[in-house]
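Encode chain A's predicted structure.
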Amino acid sequence: MALRRKRADRDNHDRWLISYADFITLLFAFFVVMYSISSVNDGKYEVLGLSLGSAFGSGVLQSSKSGAIHLSEQQAYFKSIIDRRNARLALKQQKLNERMQALVKGLNQAMAPFVKNGQMSVSKTSRGVMLNINASTLFAIGEATLAPRAKKTLAEIAKLLVDGEQSIEVEGYTDNQPISTPIYPSNWELSSARASSVVRLFIEQGIAANRLTAVGSADNNPVLSNASNEGRARNRRVTVTVLATKRGSELRAATLGQ
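Encoded structure for chain A:
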């Protein structure tokens, strides 16, 4: 009976792909961790160091009797990267705060007559810098067409906003008195049209359209009670808010800061 010839073993030249894939996976996990860290403390360093030490086979963190944490050379390198990132973020935030303070000062100076007589107010909030404009300064009652004098006033405001990069939200408000006309069936349409009129003028004055948003809020969020004429007059307003962060980043920034 004839014997079968033993088949020669073939070398597997693709075995390196397994190790390479494991390395890429670990590297991806490392960058995910780095991205998710916004504020760093010793506890986070320890967790990060232990994870990296386990993943890459390096030594783990050691603590002295005094409780001080000693980092390995590799862990100290990662710490320096995070520290530099945090320093850049802190410097960026400082410059943003300075720009916002300068904007508040500039708006108060440029709009001083209106601020003095109560037709406008400037404030700095957690969202950014808010300019509150009484609707009577801009529009006739029940209308959304800007008055000629209002265009000149808004053009002065646009000069202070045109060179910035922050997003700008323009929001229109009304009182609670119902309106029903062929053009504005309700206060929703009126408030939206007023906000849009301001946005269009800002675009004409050179502010980039992708920085602007027009919002109509009707009689929601009143600043005073609508029970009096004074309250209703104060509630009819347009707010221009220069946001401290880009829209869509506020929630992410708050989440990363936890």
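Confidence is low (pLDDT under 50) at residues 248-258.
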